[in-house]
Specification:
The structure is a homodimer. By secondary structure, the first copy, chain A, is an alpha+beta fold. Chain A is 37% helix and 25% strand. Chain A folds into two domains: 160 residues, Ribosomal Protein S5, domain 2; 128 residues, 2-Layer Sandwich (Alpha-Beta Plaits), CATH 3.30.70.890. The longest helix of chain A is centred in the middle third of the chain and has 20 residues. At the A-B interface, strand 5, strand 6, strand 8, helix 6 and helix 7 of A face strand 5, strand 6, strand 8, helix 6 and helix 7 of B.
Chain lengths: 315, 315
């Protein structure tokens, strides 16, 4: 059966999860990016829209377009014509894995349209082509968008991704202030070289987070979620973040940090009631500076684009 | 009941476990260091022997003596007199956690003699005084000697140690060539600053090792046990290591690296039969270079000095 139309939905996520720079990621419940892929007469990838007024509509500049083209190339079907429609649920340059979600949803949708010629690792690599071009070669947001849950990217060469368990009571408060931070700028402030003591501390914290995810030890997760490398470097680009984090901790958060490259920040806790208090405290802190801030309480999203159902497929 | 004599036995271990520099450690079965602490008339710590012809007998220069003194100081009983006898089962400057085992066994023995005034974390800190003075301020070997098993040192300030599970089938081949490498020299060759890509790779591997220990995924443990920071720097100090490791991998080892600061190297596998082949291959490789090499096949030692029974205590 030759499909005429297929779609896929990818969740947003928290890249890095604090100290795990480019290594840890988690998919979170809430909005996602959806891509509909349809057969078109003209060979190659075209886009019926950019998904957002601030995103490029050219297929070779848009995350969804780049990933779709990589799928056609990898599947050896470049003569096929594919038209993409991107429904952007995640914020642009928000630090919620939006570009990764667009790339992953597109790769999965186009693969479905073609009859699933590519396996999961190949789809990850196709989405990585887009992520590398647009925001740096890292796989944390891609892996959580594709597989869902909490993931560990052990290696990109070769691709080696590990799915981790997580405690059922984990709640994630996302706070998105009305600030925009370019992902590339957020990477430029990272140090090129890091002193060995800081490296040891970072390794220890990331390793302890994995131990905490495995054992369900929320207190350990809170102690280990302590980023002394990227967070101090990026905090200077994000007025109000330091104070918002302090307010979150005071309201009962076990820990918090910048989500991906920011400006979204995230805070972890173990109950809906504390999560609501944290959201209120962070919003109030930004309000006091005249900065609007959207908050939401999420959980880990167990499914990614590969396993999320989408009923838009038709022959 | 006032004790006149108490003793403790601490296992040797594999510091770092490859990429986990100063972060991961595991206690291994086989020889250990034993300390007997007896009441003495003269206040403070004296040693009835250094434990080895090449070790200093002065209590303030010997790992056992330094740790014992720290326990007396911490317990507020510096006027007590303690005489130590150190029975050294582990090699000197071998990379098998010998100095840590001496310090830990001494701290536990003296604490037993005094009626256990100190808790486990305080004992760890007392042994850390010795380790800091003699071989650098790191806690991986100390924690495995004290608690046994596989441990993760999340932080020294404050002390935060996490015990990890491990797969029952894990076998550890230890190969100790007739070379001696000073622990301080082995630290001097480590880079002071590390580029960010290498840091990301190291964090990812250490985190993946913790995931593999938790899930029992031996194949992942093998892929993740890949140290690109300390091992290349120290390999140049250890003629024959690179070839020995290659021979071990060819014989079926899942991975291997330098144990602590060396010269002992270690190799992991999942069966006694493969472990025996690895030991033979490594020994043959060193033999071909005219270097004698002791090998043994160990498992993770589940108990450390805190829980290992020792019947030398008497009133």
């Amino acid at each position: 059966m030759r499909l005429e139309r297929a779609a896929a939905l990818a969740p947003g996520g928290v890249g890095n999860i604090g100290p795990g720079l480019d290594v840890l990621g988690m998919a979170v419940t809430g909005p996602g990016d959806r891509v509909i892929a349809e057969r078109a007469d003209e060979p190659g990838v075209t886009m019926s829209g950019a998904g957002h007024a601030d995103l490029p509509r050219a297929a070779d500049k848009n995350a969804a377009g780049i990933a779709a083209n990589a799928v056609l190339e990898r599947a050896g079907t470049l003569r096929d014509g594919v038209r993409l429609t991107l429904e952007k649920g995640l914020p642009i340059s928000g630090g919620q894995g939006g570009s990764a979600a667009s790339a992953v949803a597109s790769a999965v949708a186009v693969n479905r349209l073609l009859g699933n010629p590519l396996d999961a690792i190949a789809l990850f690599e196709c989405a990585l082509v887009a992520e590398s071009q647009l925001s740096g070669r890292h796989g944390d947001n891609l892996a959580s968008a594709l597989f869902g849950g909490v993931i560990l990217v052990r290696s990109l060469d070769p691709v080696d991704i590990v799915s981790l368990p997580w405690p059922a009571e984990l709640r994630v408060v996302l706070a998105h202030p009305a600030q925009r931070l370019d992902t590339a700028a957020a990477r430029e402030v990272l140090p090129s070289f890091i002193d060995r003591a800081s490296v040891t501390a970072a390794m220890a914290n990331v390793a302890a987070m994995v131990a905490a995810f495995a054992s369900g030890d929320m207190a350990l997760l809170g102690r280990a979620l302590d980023d002394q490398i990227a967070e101090p470097a990026r905090a200077v680009l994000l007025p109000g973040f330091v104070e918002a984090k302090a307010a979150a901790l005071k309201a009962g958060a076990l820990a918090g940090s910048i989500s991906g490259g920011g400006p979204t920040s995230f805070y972890i806790t173990d109950s809906d009631s504390t999560a609501a208090k944290i959201a209120d405290a962070v919003r109030a802190e930004y309000d006091s500076r005249g900065i609007a801030c959207d908050t939401r309480v999420s959980r880990v999203a167990p499914k990614g684009a590969l396993t999320l159902a989408d009923d838009a497929t038709s022959a």
